[in-house]
Amino acid sequence: MQDKTDFSTGSVWKRILEMSVPLTAAQFINLLYNIVDRIYIARIPETGTLALTGVGLCFPIILLITGFSRLFGTGGSPLCSIELGKNNRDEAEHIMQTSFVLLTGAAVLIIAAGYIFMKPFLMTFGASEATYGFASDYLSIYLLGTVFVMYNTGINCYITCQGYAKTGMMTVVIGAVMNIILDPVFIFVLGLGVRGAAIATVISQGVSSVWMLVFLTGKKTQIRLQFSSFRFSFKTAFRIMSLGFSSFIMSCTSSLVQLVCNTCLSQYGGDIYISAMTILMSVRELCCVPSQGVSDGTIPVISYNYGQKNFKRVKSSIRFMSVSMIVYMFAAWLLLILFPRFFISIFSNDPVLTEITVQSLKIYFFGFGFMALQFAGQTVFLAMNKPVRAIIFSLLRKAVIVVPLTLILPHFVEPAVNGVFLAEPVSNFIGATACFVTMLCTIFAEL
User: Fold this and answer.
1) How many angstroms separate the first and last alpha carbons of the chain?
2) DSSP conformational letter for 370
């Protein structure tokens, strides 16, 4: 109980940092699961670039798995915090138990669908004869750990929403350290290539899941997973999914964007441009981690105080979070533009791929700072149980703006591949600004 944060007392910015710092560390470490794989895979002798492309083709499916995790995790944890703010622990526990059932059922269905439709999925996502083998080798093993991935993303939220940020961080640290150690062993020492990377990830995620479940079934937590007295209701499941649907939509539309990008890049530039996009997506994930950590750390603070009707603390939380994200994201944007080769060198030392990726980065990340506005707006909508607005702005930026532009702009931009990369910054400016302005105009009026 010593690492538990009390959301209702003390300085708001200190409470947010108490949650955000360990959660940001956890986000960085969690990102290592995939990034370490990509770093090692890109350095496999002779086939590294093709192998990296193959793993990149799996991103849309991995994003879908993450989407379902957030549907039940991100959707339930703010509701759980609100109920804890009302001192209603029984209902908070019921929400967590319902999420657990939903996550388990979804994992089973995803595994079955993944194996049945693997080849058509990967071919649709832009696989070629040269890259399909690498993609299928990785995905066929990665799918086995789906239940672990979903628990670590979806259930770990219920540790942090109670204020146990350090414990939530340890859930991720344990698996990530194992992954870093096991990756080179399976990939290079045992000579398993991309299959070795997937095996290391599954084992690491499994160990993390065991650690997390031991904590949530123990005596130190406020609310517990009690398998002997599980309660499930469709009404609670609907509440969870209604709020989590926006996060689900964000992952699904990200998967759709990745699918459309891979298809267009394959058509206009070939496999090497899919490798470049894989690196850009990795750099983007890396740079977004601090904002995601601040977002995850702010949600329980806002939700708990919203449940207590302490609106002054809610408004202070929103202000601090928004300013922090805006300052950071614009600083990150500047660093990316000034030192692109440094970030790209983390993932590849291929000179041809590096040169292509540097040119693409300058377009893809133009306007990256505006992402802060999207993060801030979506965080507030989720924390205050505003599912409709959260869903609308999740759909707007990706499905309504990015996908059509990705298909249209290559016909008006030379070379055509630059049109694919240009769609992202345009959507950042339009969609993110609309989300943030709407949040300011509606939420502060309500408070």
Assistant:
1) 32
2) G
Residue 2 counted as domain residue: no
> Which amino acid, residue 388?
V
pTM of the complete model: 0.72
pLDDT by residue for the chain (447 residues), tens digit each?
A: 345 667 777 888 888 888 888 878 777 776 766 676 677 777 787 777 788 778 777 877 887 888 888 888 878 888 888 888 888 988 989 999 999 999 999 999 999 999 999 988 888 777 778 888 888 998 999 999 999 989 988 888 888 888 888 888 888 888 888 888 898 899 888 888 888 888 998 999 999 999 999 999 888 888 888 877 777 888 899 989 988 887 787 777 777 787 788 888 888 888 788 888 888 888 888 888 888 888 888 988 898 888 888 899 999 999 999 999 999 999 999 999 999 999 888 877 788 888 999 999 999 998 888 999 999 999 999 888 888 888 888 888 888 888 899 999 999 988 898 999 999 899 889 989 999 999 999 998 888
Residue 350 domain boundaries = 12-446
User: Residue 7 falls within a domain, yes or no?
Assistant: no
List Cα–Cα distances, 360 to 38, 207, 415, 423, in angstroms. 19, 38, 11, 12
In angstroms, rounded to a whole number, what is the distance separating the alpha carbons of residues 255 and 232? 30
In this structure, what token pair is assigned to residue 6?
A: 């009390």
CA 336 to chain centre: 20
Number of structural domains (the chain) is: 1
Residue 376 lies in a domain: yes
- Could you give the C-alpha distances from 429 to 33, 177, 181, 374, 425, in angstroms and in order? 30, 37, 40, 9, 6
In a domain, residue 404? The reply is yes
Burial (CB count <10 Å: 0-12, 13-18, 19+), residue 238: exposed
